[in-house]
Amino acid sequence: MPPEPSVPTIPGSAPAKPPVALPKTPSFRLDGRRALVTGAGRGLGLAMAAALAEAGAEVSLAARSAGEVEAVADAIRARGERASAFALDVTDTDRARIEIAARGPFQVLVNNAGTNRPAHFLDVTEEDYQAVSDLNVRAALFVAKAVAEGLVEARRPGSIVNVSSQMGHVGGPKRTVYCATKHALEGATKAMAWELAEHGIRVNTICPTFIETPLSHAMLQESSFHDFVTSRIASGKIGRVEDVMGAVVYLASDASALVTGSALMIDGGWTAV
């Protein structure tokens, strides 16, 4: 083997050092990936679907109202990005499994469909519990299962993002049932992360604080509730949907390749005290 060429030196000077090898930042782009967003017709679901499409994903938007998700898909396509929409009640788990199998596999799932029925604990009914837990826990688990099954069958990696809440980590007034469901989703996410890791599927949650959306607008207009919320947020400002958009792109992309079983807090410091 011929000797390696020596680095030329100037007499009396130290040998020249080779250039430093810099690591390359993993891509936040989602080109070539297909994403499913549930509850995508308004609010956070709409914003996260738009963020994924802007990052290059082909996004399928699902919600009970076909008209709402079709309008969002039209807006995304008008921007030059790829989107489709279909009506789906995710609490109908048999139908959800069929639709997801037919349209998948999806390398990204944003498990966003959810609900709440705020009530003092002593006023909670079994109907309240059933309605909230059916959507926030049962439907979320089986939508994730259907997406994971498609990925395993196709032998593809993926990212499942379960939309939880700061209330999955703390308690709050008039939110006993909601907190119970979001704490359950946090635990399920950690277990899914371990079981699906061998298939290259990551599972995480994002945990927003109160975000200004059409659904929360009236509630946040009540001065006492508004003051309660802003007193628990370090900046004193209500969250915006834009605050969640970057987070979902991060968890969907290669930039978070080592992140699984984690909860990404987007709560303005609510859970930090």
Overall description:
By secondary structure, the chain is α/β, with parallel strands linked by helices. It contains eight helices and seven strands. The chain has helices spanning 43-54, 66-78, 93-103, 126-154, 176-196, 217-221, 223-231, 242-252, and strands spanning 34-38, 58-63, 83-87, 108-111, 158-163, 201-208, 263-266. Strands 3-2-1-4-5-6-7 form a seven-stranded parallel sheet, sandwiched between helices. Helix 1 packs across helix 8. The longest helix is centred in the middle third of the chain and has 29 residues, at 126-154.
Features:
273 residues; alpha/beta; seven-stranded parallel beta sheet; 41% helix; globular
Task: Please give a quick description of this structure.
This protein is α/β, with parallel strands linked by helices and about 270 residues long. It is about 40% helix and about 15% strand. The model has no long low-confidence stretch (mean pLDDT about 95).
How much helix, percentage-wise, in residues?
A: 40-55%
Q: Strand order, biggest sheet?
A: 3-2-1-4-5-6-7
Taking all Cα atoms into account, the compactness measure Rg is 22 Å
N-to-C SSE series? EHEHEHEHEHEHHHE
Mean pLDDT: 94
- Can you tell me the overall shape? globular
**Strand residue percentage:** 5-15%
